[in-house]
Design brief:
232 residues, alpha/beta, Nucleotidyltransferase, domain 5, 2 domains, five-stranded mixed beta sheet, globular
């Protein structure tokens, strides 16, 4: 999507396409055609069996005639940013040294727009490889307020997505994320603090985004502008 020979500076091209500026200069290691095919299968199986871990996914792939080791499955799952979704003890922790914030939405009635915004990152398969999609949405209406894609899970593209949402919409009372290091770092929380927004960290939107992954994938590939997507 980026034309390095174009008169328009690369930075401005990235802004127009809503792509993280940092990822434009990143040169990723190529993914083999074999791994790309396995990742497409893993993505399909993950959406069908979101509770499946690497052991079960390996078995499902074997049943389809795909011979692969469990370690390889775990490596690809880590690259794709997916994991088994099931009830378990709270083990996710922010980066050491990052401030810990409480989860404020438990028992809270969400009754109007701009009361609570939320943000998460999900993986989207593309024709060649994959990208990470960061989304900010209004918790009440489920309307997507801003999004950006990146080939790395860096904090910068999350900050840019947040700033884009605040620049084009009214600010919320509460902003909720999970405890990923992208969201607990000073660069991200500082933007919220500067705008007087209360920070809540706890539950995430992974399942909701995963259910809409194929639609979001079409939106990102076909419509580089702001999508009007509703997360049901």
């Amino acid at each position: 999507m980026i034309d390095r020979e174009h008169d328009l500076p690369i930075t401005k091209q990235a802004n127009v396409l809503r792509i993280s500026r940092g990822s434009v200069y990143y040169l990723p290691r190529s993914v083999s055609a074999t791994d790309q095919e396995i990742m497409r299968r893993l993505d399909r199986l993950h959406l069908e069996f979101p509770f499946a871990g690497s052991r079960m996914l390996r078995g499902l792939l074997a049943a389809e005639g795909c011979k692969i080791g469990r370690r390889h499955v775990k490596t690809l799952m880590r690259q794709m940013g997916i994991e088994a979704l099931y009830r378990r003890p709270r083990t996710t922790k922010p980066e050491p040294g990052h401030k810990v914030y409480p989860y404020l939405l438990r028992g809270l009635g969400i009754e109007r727009p701009n009361q609570v915004w939320a943000m998460d990152i999900t993986y989207i398969p593309m024709t060649r490889g994959f990208v990470y999609l960061a989304v900010v949405l209004d918790w009440f209406s489920r309307r997507v307020l801003a999004w950006r894609v990146s080939i790395t899970m860096e904090a910068a593209f999350c900050v840019e997505t947040l700033e884009d949402a605040l620049a084009h919409h009214d600010k919320p009372d509460i902003f909720n994320t999970d405890q990923g290091s992208q969201f607990t770092g000073v660069a991200f929380t500082g933007v919220l603090a500067d705008n007087g927004i209360t920070i809540s960290i706890g539950a995430d939107l992974t399942v909701k985004l995963a259910r809409n992954r194929s639609h979001l994938s079409e939106t990102v590939q076909d419509k580089p502008g702001q999508p009007k997507v509703v997360i049901a």
